[in-house]
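hey all, quick one before standup. I had two proteins in the batch that finished overnight and I want to keep them in one place so we stop losing track of which output belongs to which input. First protein below, input sequence then structure tokens straight from the run.
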Amino acid sequence: MRRHLAIFLPLLLLWWLVLQLNHYLAPWRMFVSLGGLFIAFVALQLPQRIGLIAALFAGLICDASQPVHFGFHAFLFGLATVIVQRQRPRLDRFEPTTQRTIALLANLVLFIVTALFHLRHVPAEGRLVSRFLWDLLFSELVLWAIAPWFLALQRQALELADPLAASEDRRQVD
């Protein structure tokens, strides 16, 4: 139970921080999306089943505050997690640079898919493309800046909750 809370609480904290950041950026008509950061650690570090469940719950949390069909982010996060988990044997998954790169790439793809979903409902989508590109650039910069902190927070929370299991997960790869 402690391990599940250690996985879930940092994701909940990230969701709250993103909501607060978007609230303060709203007067400037800016939006930050950090979907890649929600799935990077759980896809790279956790066992496949637990990582997928954590990504699905993170997606459901994001669905609760976004104007999309319920389950949209859960589906995207779950799909992205499965794709990253399939590539995991080829990656140095404990390297911070790899984790940050995976978070940036996943965020890029998730942002583009979400933007395309939103653009299909807008009659004059051509005018919004530049806004989405600026939001994407700003989201990637924010993610690049906070990814080391958040990934370390997730790792420390997991090690504090269950140090034996965290060391066993690391030894299985080595």
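OK second protein, same deal, sequence then tokens:
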Amino acid sequence: MLNIQVRGSKVDSVVGSISQEQMNRVFDDIKDKKYSLAEIMLNSEWQLHDDIFSSSTPIITSESELIITSYDSNDYYSEGHSFFRSKVTDIMQKIPIQNSIDFKDQFYIIAHCAISYGNSFETELNDLDYKFFDKESISITSSTYPYFRLPVIKDLFLNNIKLVDLKRQKNDLRQFISTIYKKRASDDVGFLSSDNFLKFYDVIIDSKIDIGLK
């Protein structure tokens, strides 16, 4: 059995619509409770702001590593052999795929990004062995989001087969970001990418808190 992991940072993000009334209540809370937007949202059900977009994916940084370990069985207490380790940046395609998102012509939108560190991707392949592994069979595509500045992993392939994350959640939350945007253009807004997102939306408030280890 092969266990395939990406170790490094991960972003869980949602983007949703927010009404004028909801936004006013948020600003009242900021004023009355003396908390930042990020603090208020982290302590609320921020994951529900997902009617526009949601995603959970590893972030590509200089620290991101791909590690492949071979096990003789499904018993994790047996001694595994980590036979392949590489920087993600050495494997990924160099030109990110533009991830266009349909913002549905919303006047106000809110985006949340929870950034954690640890095991950001993990999958297992029961019918493969390290003796038959070829490093040229691994490929990683990258992507960008209009509201997030760092590239992320879009898909990870082995032998042209897309690998599926088992979502074992072995991560520690390190940073939380909340941003509210206001539509600036009178034109209808549909699918936007990193290239044109800020031509249609202005930042009203951008808030970030660091959590745990520095």
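Flagging for whoever picks this up: The mean pLDDT is 91. The radius of gyration is 20 Å.
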